[in-house]
Every structure is written in C-alpha cells, then in structure tokens.
Amino acid sequence: QKLDKMRTVLMVAEKPSLAQSIAKILSKGSCTSRKGLNGACSVHEYNGNFQSQTVRFKMTSVCGHVMSLDFIGKYNNWDKVDPAELFSKAPTEKKEANPKLSMVKFLQVEARGCDYVVLWLDCDKEGENICFEVLDAIQPVMNKGIVREQSVFRAKFSSITDTDIWNAMNRLGEPNRNEALSVDARQELDLRIGCAFTRFQTKYFQGKYGNLDSSLISFGPCQTPTLGFCVERHDKIQSFKPETYWVLQAKVFKGKDTPLTLDWNRVRVFDREVGQMFVNLAKISKEAKVESVSKKEKVKQRPQALNTVEMLRVASSALGMGPQHTMQIAERLYTQGYISYPRTETTLYHENFDLKGTLKQQINNTIWAEEVKALLSTGINRPRKGNDAGDHPPITPMRSASEGELGSDGWRLYEYITRHFIATVSQDCKYLQTTIDFKIGTEAFSCSGKTLISPGYTTVIPWQGIPLEEALPACECGDTFTVEEIKLVEQQTSPPHYLTEAELITLMEKHGIGTDASIPVHINNICQRNYVTVENGRRLKPTNLGIVLVHGYYKIDAELVLPTIRSAVEKQLNLIAQGKANYQQVLQHTLEIFKRKFHYFVDSITSMDELMEVSFSPIAATGKPLSRCGKCHRFMKYIQVSGSSQSVYALCDSVFSCDGLGTVQVATASPAPSSASSPRPPTSVHGVPHSGMFKLHHVLENGITENTAGVLGLAVRKWSAGLVEVHSNK
DNA sequence: GCAAGGTC
C-alpha cells in the first residue's frame, strides 16, 4: 500500500483577527499558533477533514490588499510627464501595497508545498479582488495537483459565527473573477483620473499666487465631492437673504398660575398687514377657550447596536473628536482588548451574542454600576433589529476599564461605546406629550409639554433625555384662560450653519462617497489640503481655496464635483461585477469620457483662474518668492515677532515635525542631515544676528539646514504656510 | 508630491 503524505490546505483571511477567529471555530479551539515572518500575520495550524481526507490546515491572513496600483517609475516625474498622458499612454503596474510587510514573500513561504487553498477574504468586491492577489502570489509555489482536480476554493460567509463559518466550509465555491475585475477597473480609473487632474491643477496654480497656501491641489472622485458638500452649504449661507416674518404671540393665564406662552397654529405670516389682521381677529376675545386637551404616550427608541459610521458621528458631535483621531483611538482600544473590532457596518447583534456576559463585565464600574445591576436583575431588553452587513459584530466593550488605564480620549470613547451598548439592551424612553388647543377669537393656538414616564435608556445616555419642563396646568375642554397679552412679533429667518462633520458623514454615507474605513481619510484630506477648516462645534468651513476650486468646477464641468460622478462610475463597475459588461470596454469607455473632461478642463482653466485672481494675489505682488519648505512644499514666509526686539527667522527642518497644516511639534533635535545627501548646497542667509539666538538658517527647497543641532531650547510660536516662528527659550 | 481601497 502506497503511503500518501498528508496534504496541506492553506487558508487565507483578510486580516489577522479574522484568521484567528475562523481558525478557532474550525479547529474547535485546538489549533496551534505562530507568528509569520512579517511579524504582523499569524499562522494557525490543526488537522482536520477536507474533501474526504485527513489534512493539515494552515490558516493565516493578509493585511488588506497585497498589491496596489501605480504608474511605472518614469511616469511619476511631474516635470517630464504631461498629465494628459496618464489617461492611456502611461503604463501601470502592481506594486506591493506595504513593502514593510513583505506580504508576497510571507504568503509564498507559507504556501510552498500546500495542495489546496481556501480563500476566506471578506465577502465584498474588495475581498474578491484580494483573492486574486493572493492567488497570483501563491500559485507558482503550490504543489501541482492532480489534473482537473479543484485546488482553489472560496468560502462565502456572512458573519463570524460557528454556524456561518461551518456552513461556508461545507459549501465552498470559487472566487469570482468579475467582481475582482470591477475592483481592478476602479483602481485604474481612480489612479489615472485623480493623478491627471491633481498634477495639472497643482502645476498650473502653484507658484502663480504668492498667498495660495497649498503645496498640493488635489482632486479625487471622493475627496472632491466631499469638499463639494461643504462648499454647497457655504453657498447657501452666502446667498441667504433673511426674510422678515410675523408671529402672533399670546400669553394666557388661569388663576395664580404663571402665564403660558402659546404657539400660533398658523406658525407665521410673511406680510405685516395680514399679521395685524389676525391680531385684530384674536383680540375680539379677552378669553382663551380650551378646545381640547390631548395626552399621548410617546416613545423615544433605544439606539441600534453601534457601527463605525455612527460611532464617528457621535464622537464628532458629542465628544468633539475628529473621525481620523477617533479611528486611531478605537484601534488602540481594540488591540488592547477593550472593545470589539471597530470597523464594521453591522448594527445587529447575532443571535448567540453574549449580551448578558458583556453587560456583567460592567457591573463594577462606579459610573454605570447601578443601571447595569438594575438591568441584570429586571432582565435586559431585546435589542432593536439592525442590519447585518456580514462583516463584523457591532462595536461593544470587551472588558471593564477605568479612566486611568485608557487616557483621556481613550476613556471618553470607551465610555461612549459602553454607554451605547448598555442603552441598546435598555428599555425605550417613554414620555407623555400633552397638547392643549386654544381658541382666542377666531385664531387657534396650542401649547404642548413633555413629562417623563420612564427614562429607559436615557439614564445611560443622558444627553438624549427628555429635558425637564414646567408642567402644563391641569385643565380640560371648555375651560377658559384670561388673555394677558396678544401681540405681533417681528422676526427674521436665519441662515443655515456650516456643515457639522457629523452631517457631512451622513451625506457621504447617503451618496456612497467612501466607505466606513475611508470616510475619515477623505475628511482628513480636505482639511490637510487646506480646503476646509474645522471650526467650533466641529463645523467645516471651506477656505478661499476650497471655495474657488468648487466654484471653478461648477463653472467648467459641474460633474467633476457632484456626488453623482462616483455613483455613475460605480454603476458601470457593478456591470462588470455582474458579468453584464466587459471589463476592458467599461474601463476604456470611462477613461475616454474623463480624458475628454480633462482636456475640456485644461482648455477652460482660465475660468477657474479668474476666480483665483479674486481671492489670491499674484506672486509678484506678495514680494519676492521665498523658497519652499522642503517638507511640505509650501512657500515660506518671513515672520517678525511683534513686540520683541529679537529677530525671528523662518525655519522649517527635520527637528520639527511638519504636518503641512497648522501644528508643529518640537521633536528631539536630530543632527541635520549631512549635506552630502543634499542634492543642492544650502544657500546662505545673510545678516542673521546671533545675540540670544541660535544660529538659524533658511530651509532650502530640499529641506536641508545647517546647524540644526543647536535648535533644542527654542520655542515655537506659530506655523503657517510652511513656516515656523522660533525664538530662544532661554 | 498624486486616487481610493483594504488594514497594522
């Protein structure tokens, strides 16, 4: 009898956490684990059954995409390549997405000698695309199987639960080439279109206006519509014409009760004369007659289980934390085991989710122990039905924590996530809404008030609670009140506010701009590029640059900024995914359209330039052009400290970490890079007085300074447009 | 130096 060597099945998930969960389920907890050679991914091994044979399973993962698309090297020279060439002529290539992870090598090491592969990538189009990235990497090194025997399998799962994972394992299919191709097409379109427009408008406007505070004027199918939403609101504010309107205000009282102010049922009128007529009609009577009293029990629903986008909204509006920052904090909380995986679209707890166990972990927290104990003794409420996106469970706390161990923002986010979780298993908030309808003369008025019946979940989410109001007077139909006053009040309509970040997130979600993972990136982008600033209350106010860009697109080709640009393309991409359209044809057709749009944009750029001229000064008018900061590529400005006899010099070098925006951190002074690595020698700055100052030198285009070693001990006062203002601390 | 999408 021939002794067969045991066969090996390689299994690959999209991220390390999933590989671990799935391996644990499939091995029934019996797998052994080791780190892979890149340090990021683990390999979980166990023996089991596959295709009616005993095999060795090796479950591992990638970290998102293995490859990313870029132009071949020589097309990345901005000075030598005409952006128009990026639409067709410039060849692209797939490069390793994160060279530090050496993912291809890692996969090949693990795949060598394997006989089968089961792809456990996320069940969306991106996941399908990663399937083929993995296959491209490993197929050359896998064992060549028996001819016509299937060796590549795709697991389709919709949640990370025992039943789902086992079902997927028992009904393996094949990866879907069309879905993967639709992602290839998206990548190529985004790259070619984004880079062409970005390079062209950057090069066109850069160096033209001295006070144009940007190193890079980027364009993208997600970031540009995101900016568009902010500017659209700005335009509404600008074009807002306040309108005067009139309201009938009536105050009535009964006995010794404090007077009630009533709401007019006509709400308001926009004509003074008409308003006066209604006053006269009301004044016929000195009494207000109660027409009806209604009491309705109303319910404020407990929240659905928490997903990423909702977490970002609340973090921004209630905690004042930006999305990018929130995700960083959330990821830290996740890797430290305090919360579940923070990137999910799902708002439904799975049937076997341990609600009570999760709640019990919170029993000793002083802040909400009382609510938790009450829930555990009276029984938790069944959570509201949410949406199962098939990715990850909702965001929940995983163990108890205290403020000291998490740090300020970490704690605030953890506290919110925990309060939200408790709220989802609490009762709804119930209140009584009382409405009293009055008639004064011929005019109808009413007043209403809310009284709490039971606070339910609002005890843990107090900011959603029913505000305490003074109770309405007890009365019944037919009662009469004395009219204390009735008058016509003049008021004006007021303009809308700038978009809050939370509103922007909602708009992006609604229009399909970005994903839960990329929404924070797009918002961060338009801040970093100086298109919008974050104002009080995390409202996003477009800058002159942001406004001019969007208005320019409107003038030239509004589709460049409308959210429909993305959805139209995605419609085409979906046809590829469904096998209803040819990948090459859709790609070429769409590229052709955008190539034409690009040429039209180039030909019409003067109409955007006209807007620029209004907002920015030509470089000649701003004095001599200074060199650019070597790091952020913006023009440097010379700044004098007011009220100081000391001279202060513009400086930007590696001692300071530059984020290209308004913040600067003094890092440990590292020695200046040796000028040997400098492609150009530093130009000297003359007339630098030394008394009380460190010797400072301008930074040159390549970002090299001399004598930066002595920079420690300087105070940084201001940073703007690539400039740091420094003076001695001593 | 550029896009957007995964994830660390």
From TrEMBL:
EC number(s) for this protein? 5.6.2.1
Catalytically driven reaction(s)? ATP-independent breakage of single-stranded DNA, followed by passage and rejoining
Gene Ontology cellular component?
Answer: nucleus
Recorded superkingdom: Eukaryota
- Region: Disordered, residue numbers: 380-405
Q: Does the keyword Isomerase apply?
A: yes
GO annotations under biological process?
A: DNA recombination; DNA repair; DNA topological change
Provide the GO MF annotations for this entry. Answer: DNA binding; DNA topoisomerase type I (single strand cut, ATP-independent) activity
Domain (Toprim) ranges: 8-153
Enzyme category, top tier: isomerase
What range(s) does the Topo IA-type catalytic domain occupy?
Answer: 176-598
List the keywords (alphabetical).
Answer: DNA-binding, Isomerase, Topoisomerase
The task this protein performs is described as: Introduces a single-strand break via transesterification at a target site in duplex DNA. Releases the supercoiling and torsional tension of DNA introduced during the DNA replication and transcription by transiently cleaving and rejoining one strand of the DNA duplex. The scissile phosphodiester is attacked by the catalytic tyrosine of the enzyme, resulting in the formation of a DNA-(5'-phosphotyrosyl)-enzyme intermediate and the expulsion of a 3'-OH DNA strand. Releases the supercoiling and torsional tension of DNA introduced during the DNA replication and transcription by transiently cleaving and rejoining one strand of the DNA duplex. Introduces a single-strand break via transesterification at a target site in duplex DNA. The scissile phosphodiester is attacked by the catalytic tyrosine of the enzyme, resulting in the formation of a DNA-(5'-phosphotyrosyl)-enzyme intermediate and the expulsion of a 3'-OH DNA strand. The free DNA strand than undergoes passage around the unbroken strand thus removing DNA supercoils.
Q: Which family does it belong to?
A: Belongs to the type IA topoisomerase family.
| Protein name as catalogued | DNA topoisomerase
Q: Which organism is it from?
A: Gambusia affinis (Western mosquitofish)
Q: Which residues of the full protein are shown?
A: 226 to 955 of 955
